[in-house]
Amino acid sequence: MAGLDKTTPTPQDITVHSQSKVLQVSFSDGSDFRIPFELMRVYSPSAEVQGHGPGQEVLQTGKREVGIVALESVGNYAVQPTFSDGHESGIYSWDYLYFLGSQQTALWADYNARLEKAGTDRDAPMPEKGGHACGSH
User: 23 - beta bridge partners?
Assistant: First the structure.
């Protein structure tokens, strides 16, 4: 069901902390994660961020202050946030939220390495969108 792994614990509570810019998710296995909105935004599972295949990922910058303005349920397996920068196409399954929460240290390290390789930093503005028009952006 849309990437939902049957072995992944399910959320027991989800709280949007607008001031501290974190999504707090408590899972059935006792795990409790505080996932920064910025991390969620730069690792959005959307085609806009992930591309349509390996090597097509779009490095996200300028997302440190991004907020979540709405959080909608998607069936019984995911949530879909609307971010303050207008991004709303990412659907975060329970297993993906668990992954983001449990792998934060490695994900931040990977993000910083990709920024360095690109010669930019996390606060740089996003470049203007090119002429890509697949309809999913």
Answer: 16, 35
CATH number (domain holding residue 102): 3.30.2020.30
Q: What is the pTM of this model?
A: 0.88
Q: What is the CB neighbour count within 10 angstroms for residue 83?
A: 19
Q: What is the pLDDT along the chain (137 residues), one digit of tens a residue?
A: 344 567 778 999 999 999 999 999 999 999 999 999 999 999 999 999 998 888 889 999 999 999 999 999 999 999 999 999 999 999 999 999 999 999 999 999 999 999 999 999 999 998 876 544 444 44
Report yes or no: 70 and 53 within 8 Å, Cβ to Cβ: no
In a domain, 5, yes or no: no
Q: Which of 100, 80, 99 is nearest to 90 (CA)?
A: 80
Give me the domain span that covers residue 52.
Answer: 11-118
